[in-house]
Structures are given as C-alpha cells and as structure tokens.
C-alpha cells in the first residue's frame, strides 16, 4: 500500500531533483491499482503534462516496468506496437514512469512529465529512490 505520506515523500524528492535541473514538472504517484494517490504541478510546468504524468504512473504500474523500457517495444514492428491505444488510451510509452517497490513487491508507481524523456526519467528515479 502507498499512503498519502509515502506519496508526498516521493513527490518532495522528485520536486527537489526537478529544481536542481531547472525543469518544472508534473509528478504523479499511483497505488497498486494504478489509481492516483497524489499529483503536483510545479509552478510553470506544462498543463498538457498533467495528464501525461498520471498516465505514465498508471502505465508503469499496469505493466510493472519503467516506461522507458516499454517504449522500444512499442515502435512499428515491435511486439507491443499499438499498445498505447489499449486501456482506454491510458497507456503512455514515454520515459518518466517507474514502479515503486516495497519488500521486493511493486505497490505503485511514479509518473513524471514536463521535460525531455531523460529529464523525466531522472526526476522519477529521484522520487522512486525516496520511496
């Protein structure tokens, strides 16, 4: 289970990393069912990235994989090509989603959006590390 306090700790660490790299982000934390626990839109983060961050967290939990690791398999000709259209369009295959584990079991995920894929993933890693 991910509590609200867990989610706040993850978001705080992710925000700190986003501030360090100078990129405002949207940061979402989802529970084991892929449901949103908490979300933060940093000042000046893109409003279009709100939905993307939430969907990255959902995707990472739904498939128990970092979204950056899923993306290469979703290209034309790849084994998961077209997966982004599944789950009522909730699948986001850009970097920035990472599962959150407790005692070796995935119990949720973080999703980050607002910068490049590399920036999103770095901020998500910082949040995941605080979990």
TrEMBL record:
<dbReference type="InterPro" id="IPR038084">
    <property type="entry name" value="PduO/GlcC-like_sf"/>
</dbReference>
<protein>
    <recommendedName>
        <fullName>Cobalamin adenosyltransferase</fullName>
    </recommendedName>
</protein>
<dbReference type="Pfam" id="PF03928">
    <property type="entry name" value="HbpS-like"/>
</dbReference>
<dbReference type="InterPro" id="IPR052517">
    <property type="entry name" value="GlcG_carb_metab_protein"/>
</dbReference>
<dbReference type="InterPro" id="IPR005624">
    <property type="entry name" value="PduO/GlcC-like"/>
</dbReference>
